[in-house]
Amino acid sequence: MYPPDKNANIVYLTLTCIIQPLGNESGLGRIRTEELEASCKTLGIKETYVNIENHAALQDDPRVHWDPEIISDILKDYVIKNGVDTIITFDDQGISGHPNHISCYNGARNVSTSDFLIYKLKTVNVFRKYISLFDLTYTHYNYRVADGKKKTNGIVKPLAPPDTMLLVSSFGNYIKAREAMKCHKSQLVWFRYLYVLFSRYMVINELERVQ
Protein backbone atom coordinates (compact mmCIF):
# COMPACT_ATOMS: atom_id res chain seq x y z
CA MET A 1 0.00 0.00 0.00
CA TYR A 2 1.34 3.44 -0.98
CA PRO A 3 0.06 7.02 -1.10
CA PRO A 4 -0.61 8.50 -4.59
CA ASP A 5 2.37 9.03 -6.98
CA LYS A 6 4.71 6.69 -5.06
CA ASN A 7 4.00 3.67 -7.26
CA ALA A 8 6.22 4.93 -10.09
CA ASN A 9 9.07 6.75 -8.39
CA ILE A 10 9.77 4.31 -5.57
CA VAL A 11 8.58 0.77 -6.11
CA TYR A 12 8.36 0.08 -9.85
CA LEU A 13 10.82 -2.80 -9.60
CA THR A 14 8.58 -4.94 -7.44
CA LEU A 15 5.08 -3.73 -8.19
CA THR A 16 2.39 -5.97 -9.69
CA CYS A 17 -0.70 -4.66 -7.91
CA ILE A 18 -1.45 -1.61 -5.84
CA ILE A 19 -3.83 -0.25 -3.20
CA GLN A 20 -3.97 3.52 -2.80
CA PRO A 21 -6.11 6.24 -1.22
CA LEU A 22 -7.92 8.62 -3.52
CA GLY A 23 -5.21 11.29 -3.41
CA ASN A 24 -7.54 14.20 -2.73
CA GLU A 25 -4.97 16.65 -1.40
CA SER A 26 -5.80 20.16 -2.72
CA GLY A 27 -9.12 18.79 -4.03
CA LEU A 28 -7.42 16.94 -6.90
CA GLY A 29 -8.88 13.51 -6.19
CA ARG A 30 -10.49 12.94 -9.58
CA ILE A 31 -7.42 14.16 -11.48
CA ARG A 32 -5.01 12.08 -9.41
CA THR A 33 -7.20 9.02 -9.80
CA GLU A 34 -6.95 9.36 -13.58
CA GLU A 35 -3.20 9.95 -13.32
CA LEU A 36 -2.75 6.87 -11.17
CA GLU A 37 -4.71 4.70 -13.58
CA ALA A 38 -2.61 5.99 -16.49
CA SER A 39 0.60 5.38 -14.55
CA CYS A 40 -0.38 1.81 -13.69
CA LYS A 41 -1.31 1.17 -17.32
CA THR A 42 2.15 2.37 -18.37
CA LEU A 43 3.71 -0.03 -15.87
CA GLY A 44 1.66 -2.91 -17.25
CA ILE A 45 -0.44 -3.37 -14.10
CA LYS A 46 -3.86 -4.85 -14.82
CA GLU A 47 -6.76 -2.53 -14.09
CA THR A 48 -8.40 -5.18 -11.91
CA TYR A 49 -5.36 -5.12 -9.61
CA VAL A 50 -5.63 -1.39 -8.89
CA ASN A 51 -7.77 -0.55 -5.86
CA ILE A 52 -8.36 3.13 -5.07
CA GLU A 53 -9.82 3.77 -1.61
CA ASN A 54 -11.92 6.89 -0.99
CA HIS A 55 -11.99 6.57 2.79
CA ALA A 56 -12.71 9.63 4.93
CA ALA A 57 -9.90 8.71 7.33
CA LEU A 58 -7.32 8.13 4.58
CA GLN A 59 -7.30 11.43 2.73
CA ASP A 60 -4.01 12.36 1.09
CA ASP A 61 -1.96 14.62 3.36
CA PRO A 62 1.75 13.99 4.05
CA ARG A 63 1.40 15.64 7.48
CA VAL A 64 -1.34 13.32 8.75
CA HIS A 65 -1.14 9.92 10.43
CA TRP A 66 -3.58 7.35 9.07
CA ASP A 67 -5.27 4.77 11.30
CA PRO A 68 -3.29 1.51 10.93
CA GLU A 69 -6.36 -0.56 11.79
CA ILE A 70 -8.29 0.86 8.83
CA ILE A 71 -5.35 0.16 6.55
CA SER A 72 -5.06 -3.36 7.93
CA ASP A 73 -8.75 -4.09 7.29
CA ILE A 74 -8.49 -2.84 3.70
CA LEU A 75 -5.42 -4.98 3.07
CA LYS A 76 -7.04 -8.09 4.53
CA ASP A 77 -10.04 -7.75 2.22
CA TYR A 78 -7.81 -7.16 -0.80
CA VAL A 79 -5.52 -10.09 0.01
CA ILE A 80 -8.43 -12.52 0.34
CA LYS A 81 -10.21 -11.24 -2.78
CA ASN A 82 -7.15 -11.35 -5.06
CA GLY A 83 -5.17 -14.27 -3.66
CA VAL A 84 -2.17 -12.07 -2.84
CA ASP A 85 0.92 -13.89 -1.53
CA THR A 86 3.21 -10.89 -0.90
CA ILE A 87 2.70 -7.34 0.36
CA ILE A 88 5.37 -4.66 -0.18
CA THR A 89 5.16 -1.32 1.60
CA PHE A 90 7.27 1.36 3.29
CA ASP A 91 9.37 0.70 6.39
CA ASP A 92 8.96 2.44 9.74
CA GLN A 93 10.80 5.52 8.44
CA GLY A 94 8.63 5.89 5.36
CA ILE A 95 11.48 6.79 2.93
CA SER A 96 10.68 10.51 3.25
CA GLY A 97 9.50 10.43 6.86
CA HIS A 98 5.91 11.36 6.00
CA PRO A 99 3.49 10.16 8.70
CA ASN A 100 1.10 8.60 6.19
CA HIS A 101 3.94 6.56 4.69
CA ILE A 102 4.77 5.20 8.14
CA SER A 103 1.09 4.47 8.73
CA CYS A 104 1.09 2.25 5.64
CA TYR A 105 3.86 0.19 7.22
CA ASN A 106 2.09 -0.06 10.57
CA GLY A 107 -1.14 -1.10 8.87
CA ALA A 108 0.55 -3.78 6.78
CA ARG A 109 2.45 -5.07 9.80
CA ASN A 110 -0.84 -5.71 11.60
CA VAL A 111 -2.05 -8.10 8.91
CA SER A 112 -1.52 -11.77 9.76
CA THR A 113 1.53 -13.18 7.95
CA SER A 114 0.58 -16.86 8.20
CA ASP A 115 -0.53 -17.16 4.57
CA PHE A 116 1.59 -14.52 2.80
CA LEU A 117 4.78 -12.48 3.06
CA ILE A 118 5.26 -8.82 3.95
CA TYR A 119 8.34 -6.91 2.80
CA LYS A 120 9.28 -3.34 3.68
CA LEU A 121 11.24 -0.99 1.43
CA LYS A 122 14.37 0.11 3.28
CA THR A 123 14.93 3.80 3.97
CA VAL A 124 18.47 5.08 3.39
CA ASN A 125 20.08 8.37 4.38
CA VAL A 126 19.75 11.47 2.20
CA PHE A 127 23.23 11.15 0.69
CA ARG A 128 22.66 7.57 -0.47
CA LYS A 129 19.14 8.41 -1.59
CA TYR A 130 20.34 10.77 -4.31
CA ILE A 131 23.39 9.06 -5.81
CA SER A 132 21.40 6.72 -8.06
CA LEU A 133 23.34 3.65 -9.27
CA PHE A 134 26.49 4.75 -7.44
CA ASP A 135 24.85 3.45 -4.28
CA LEU A 136 25.43 -0.09 -5.53
CA THR A 137 29.07 0.14 -4.43
CA TYR A 138 27.78 0.13 -0.87
CA THR A 139 24.69 -2.05 -1.05
CA HIS A 140 26.24 -5.02 -2.86
CA TYR A 141 28.36 -5.74 0.20
CA ASN A 142 25.28 -5.99 2.39
CA TYR A 143 22.61 -7.74 0.35
CA ARG A 144 22.46 -10.66 -2.02
CA VAL A 145 20.40 -10.66 -5.16
CA ALA A 146 17.73 -13.34 -4.76
CA ASP A 147 16.13 -14.85 -7.86
CA GLY A 148 13.89 -17.24 -5.94
CA LYS A 149 15.24 -20.37 -7.62
CA LYS A 150 18.29 -22.59 -7.68
CA LYS A 151 19.26 -25.67 -9.63
CA THR A 152 20.12 -28.94 -7.90
CA ASN A 153 21.02 -31.94 -10.07
CA GLY A 154 19.29 -30.30 -12.99
CA ILE A 155 16.06 -29.79 -11.05
CA VAL A 156 14.78 -26.28 -10.37
CA LYS A 157 13.69 -25.96 -6.75
CA PRO A 158 12.20 -22.92 -5.01
CA LEU A 159 14.29 -21.22 -2.35
CA ALA A 160 12.86 -20.37 1.03
CA PRO A 161 11.58 -16.78 1.05
CA PRO A 162 14.66 -14.56 1.58
CA ASP A 163 14.85 -12.19 4.52
CA THR A 164 16.44 -9.50 2.35
CA MET A 165 16.52 -8.74 -1.37
CA LEU A 166 18.37 -6.28 -3.56
CA LEU A 167 16.54 -5.50 -6.81
CA VAL A 168 18.24 -3.49 -9.56
CA SER A 169 16.35 -2.15 -12.56
CA SER A 170 17.36 -2.65 -16.16
CA PHE A 171 17.72 0.46 -18.31
CA GLY A 172 14.48 -0.37 -20.12
CA ASN A 173 12.55 -0.65 -16.87
CA TYR A 174 14.06 2.62 -15.64
CA ILE A 175 12.76 4.37 -18.76
CA LYS A 176 9.33 2.79 -18.24
CA ALA A 177 9.28 4.01 -14.63
CA ARG A 178 10.11 7.54 -15.84
CA GLU A 179 7.24 7.39 -18.32
CA ALA A 180 4.90 6.24 -15.55
CA MET A 181 6.02 9.11 -13.34
CA LYS A 182 5.18 11.58 -16.11
CA CYS A 183 1.55 10.49 -15.84
CA HIS A 184 1.35 12.21 -12.42
CA LYS A 185 1.27 15.67 -14.02
CA SER A 186 -0.46 17.39 -11.10
CA GLN A 187 2.46 16.49 -8.83
CA LEU A 188 5.39 17.07 -11.16
CA VAL A 189 6.85 20.09 -9.39
CA TRP A 190 10.49 20.97 -10.09
CA PHE A 191 12.08 18.86 -7.33
CA ARG A 192 10.38 15.68 -8.54
CA TYR A 193 12.23 15.98 -11.85
CA LEU A 194 15.45 15.95 -9.83
CA TYR A 195 14.14 12.93 -7.96
CA VAL A 196 13.56 11.03 -11.19
CA LEU A 197 17.09 11.82 -12.36
CA PHE A 198 19.05 11.15 -9.18
CA SER A 199 17.07 8.99 -6.75
CA ARG A 200 18.49 5.51 -6.18
CA TYR A 201 14.90 4.31 -5.62
CA MET A 202 14.31 4.67 -9.35
CA VAL A 203 16.84 1.89 -9.96
CA ILE A 204 17.54 0.16 -6.63
CA ASN A 205 15.06 -1.33 -4.17
CA GLU A 206 16.19 -3.01 -0.95
CA LEU A 207 13.50 -5.13 0.65
CA GLU A 208 13.49 -6.58 4.15
CA ARG A 209 11.05 -9.23 5.28
CA VAL A 210 8.69 -8.26 8.13
CA GLN A 211 8.68 -11.14 10.61
Polypeptide structure, described:
The protein is of the alpha/beta class and 211 residues long. The protein has a single domain, classed as Rossmann fold. It contains 8 helices and 8 strands, in the order αβαβαβαβααβββααβ. Strands 3-4-8-7 form a 4-stranded mixed sheet, covered by helices on one side. A hairpin with a 2-residue loop joins strand 5 and strand 6. The longest helix is centred in the first third of the chain and has 15 residues, at 29-43. 31% of the residues are buried.
The best one-word shape is globular
CATH domain topology: Rossmann fold
Radius of gyration computed on alpha carbons: 17 Å
- Oligomeric status of the shown chains? single chain
Main β sheet profile: 4 strands, mixed
Briefly note the structural class of the backbone: alpha/beta
Number of self-contained structural domains: 1
Largest sheet: spatial strand order: 3-4-8-7
SS elements, strand count: 8
Summarize model confidence as the mean pLDDT: 81
What is the H/E order? HEHEHEHEHHEEEHHE
Percent range of helical residues: 25-40%
Q: Secondary-structure blueprint of this entry?
A:
Elements: H1 6-9, E1 18-21, H2 29-43, E2 50-53, H3 68-82, E3 86-90, H4 99-109, E4 117-121, H5 126-129, H6 136-139, E5 149-152, E6 155-158, E7 164-168, H7 171-182, H8 190-198, E8 204-209
Parallel strand pairs: 1-2, 3-4
Antiparallel strand pairs: 4-8, 5-6, 7-8
